[in-house]
Structure formats: C-alpha cells, structure tokens
What we know:
By secondary structure, the protein is mainly beta. It folds into three domains: about 55-185, no CATH class; about 190-270 and about 420-485, Immunoglobulin-like, CATH 2.60.40; about 270-410, Galactose-binding domain-like (Jelly Rolls), CATH 2.60.120.260. It has helices spanning about 5-10, 25-75, and strands at about 80, 90-95, 105-110, 115-120, 125-130, 130-140, 145, 160-165, 175-185, 190-195, 210-215, 225, 230, 235-245, 255, 260-265, 270, 295, 305-310, 315-320, 330-335, 345-355, 360-365, 375-380, 385-395, 400-410, 420-425, 440-445, 450-455, 470, 485. It has a ten-stranded mixed sheet, with no helix packed on it. The longest helix is centred in the first third of the chain and has 54 residues, at about 25-75.
Amino acid sequence: MDSRRWDNLRRSRPVGTRGGWTLIEALLTVAIMGFVFAAAAPLLQKAGVAYSASDPRTQMVQEGRVALAHFARAFRQARGVTSPTSTGEEKSVLRFLAADGQATVFGLFEPAGASVVKYGPAAAPDLLASNCDSLLMTCYGADGSLLSVPPSNPTAVRSVQVAMSVSDAGGRVDPMTLTTQSAIRRTPPSVVINEIMYKPPPELGPKDKNRWVELYNPTAGAIDVGGWLLWTMDPIEVDTLSGDALYSIGSTVIPAGGYAIVTDRDTELYREKLRNGDFEKGTMSDWASTDWWAAGTGDAVSGSYAARYSGTGWNCMYQDFKIDTSAASARLRIWERYDPAFGNAPRVVIRVTDRHSTVFVTVYDGPCHPAWTLHTADLSALADVDARLEIWAYRGYSDAHARIDAAAVFWNRNPNFPLDCLHLWVNDNEIGKNLENCQVFIGSVQDKLHDAVAFQTVWGGDGDGTTLSRVHPFSPSTEAETWKPGPFAGTPGAANGN
C-alpha cells in the first residue's frame, strides 16, 4: 500500500479509538465464559444421560414392535386358533394354524428365568424380543364378543388384541407398553383333507392300488376341484385332479357337505367285471359280435378311446359277466352320445340279459343324446347269475354314428364305500407314490394352498387297516389331536367313523 493511501486511512479513524484488546478486557471475557460454562454443566450432564438412555429405549421398543408386527402379519392369514400345550417354559402363549397349515406359536416364554417373546413353528419358535415383562392376549369372536383363552372352537376367534410390556435390563428407562390388534382375514378352508388311507395292509390288496385320499367340502356351496393339485413332498410329487366317468359321474364338483375320493386310475376299491369296458386298449377285444363297431380316439367321456357304430341297420355288441356272490351290491354304468353335426340321432338299446337274450333289465331304449349321457342300473339281484350286457344300435343312412364309452359292471370292495360317491383320478396314476412320507397338500394351484396335512404314523393308519381320520373338518390339520385311527378299511365317501 502506498504512503498516501495509508495516511488517508489513518485520518479516517474516529477520534478516541484504538486497535487491539487490553489486558483487563481479555480477563473480563474469560471470567464471563467460565461463568456461562459452569451454569450450563448440569444441563449438559442431563443431556448426556438422556442420550445414553435413548439407545436401550430404542432397542427395546424396536424389538417389541418387530415381534408384534410378525404376529399381526401371520395372524391375518391364520386358519384358526388352537389350544395351547404347555412345555413348562410357556407363560402366555397363543397357538394358531398358519396359512400353510403349520402349527405356529407366539407368546411369552421363560427359559432359565428369562422372559422372552418367541414366534414361529411350534416345535422351534424363534426369539424375537428380550426383557418382556408381560404379554396379555385377548381374543374376540366375529361379533366382537370376548372369548376365553384357549377358545373351545378353533374357528371362533376372529381377532386378537396383544399388550406387551417391555423394559430395559439395566433399569435405565421405565417400562413401556406396546399394543396391536390383528384380525383373521382368511376364511376357513373351503376343501379339506378328511381321511387318508396311506398304508393299506396286504389283506386289502396291493398297496399302490388301494391307497386313497378323501376330500370334504364343509361349505354351503358346491366347489369345482377340476384341475386342482394334490401333492406330497420329499421329493415333491404333484398330481392334477380329474373326474372319473368310469365309476363315477365324471364330475369334479364336490357338493355342499359332500365327499370325494381321490385314487389311482387303476384302483382296486372297485371290483370290475367287464373287460376293456373303457375301450382303452384301442380295440374291440373282449366284446363279441362287433360288426361295424370300432374303438376310435377322440370324443371320449373317459380316457382317449370310445366305441363307435358306423354301420347301417341294427347291430349288437355284447359281453358276458357274472357278479360274485360276495358282492353286497352291484352297479352298471354306461355312457352314450352322437354328434348332431353328422346327421340325425341313431337309436340305442342297452339291456342286461341271460346268455340266451332273455331280458333281466332294460337300462335304456331310445335315441342317442347330443351330449354324453350316463345310464345306470342296480344289478344287486343278479349276483351269481350268468349275465350278459347287450348294446344294440340302429343307424339309418342319414343318421350320425352312435358312440358308447365307459361301460362298467362293478361293486365296491370296501363295504363302507357308497356306490355313488364322487370319484376323482390323478393324472399320473401314482397317488400312492409318496403318501407314506406323511405329507399331503391340496390347492387350486401350488401357491394357493387350501389344506395341508403333515402327520405322524402314530396318529393312525400305519399298515393296520385303519385310516388317518380327521375328527373335525375345521380342526388344525397338523395337530395330533385332530386325527384318530378310523375303522378297518376306513369310511371313504362318508362321515368319519371316529
């Protein structure tokens, strides 16, 4: 800076001012700052204590909230509350059936004197929160009424209110109470696994042909299970359900309060007397007088083949049979139809005669139907009689072909099995492959489970001729108390015998 600018700057300073601090000013400033710090020290100490306490408070609140969130999320998808079973460590525990059918537990446990909250599979729940002083759970019904704990009806509980008191083990903060309430949103299963013959003894016949699973519809409406899956695990074995038109009506609709039996296609629950009545050999073998009758693929009510009459005038195919004297009852079932796109309706006569064509029973006499139509007859009175099934067809030049399929003369080997029970087949004919792995699942698709059973052999049905039989359709499917041994050979297609 040049001398002239410096002189000007000096001249501009107000009169009486000076530069820098005096010794007295510096000492006075230090004294004031010391006084301020001394006064603020208690406040800083309290802030430090509050900060040090915030960490345990945050931890215990976070643990408690996580535990309640786990419970609330799972309980919304639960199927029902079950009665608790004490293990000696449980203090306040709620057991319920989870969405996947697994027995699940949530509650306060006291292992080795500690108080902790656990949640998860009943056999081995996970630790969610420590230092829990108390856990109070209140159950309510669908109408909001207060229920006892444990409830007598596992489907009565529709919501649960939980109050959890948590604290800091070091006593640095006061206990806090966290609450939540969760309501079951999942309706009870629409189709349940009701009875299982998973290990039939030799006296009932070959094991793979005498296994079965019974489904039950506990609702007030019919349910179509066509295309649903029935599977086992370890390894996974998935079967698709289809209707049986040979021994049943071909439907996959389980009526309200009704049952359905699922078996292999070649099951021996039925004693069949006709040979190749389903024409699945692709030929007319085993049938006599078959001029102009042939087995063709396509347009079959059961399997891949059906018999077709393509001649003109009258013609008959027949097969002889004899019903065993041991049969308590016997049934004839046969389907017929024609395709109206190829002409007028031909005529069909279905009758049971002796070996000289003396008629015992006329099952049907009339025109073919445009859709597959089932005809049945009770043949119980013909036990030990040399009988013959005759199928006559008449076709004019302008008539369509008559079609016949799924002809069966049979009775049930199991006297407890109703003849008219809905019967379902599995697509791969191996329902019995993995039933002994003690797990069975039913669902419309694999990620939409309707019911699941994970059982133990001591519950019943372990090769002694009894079945694994459910006590109540809404009871938890994975609890031992739900299952009892059924009567010998079980009660397929009917109410359980326990």
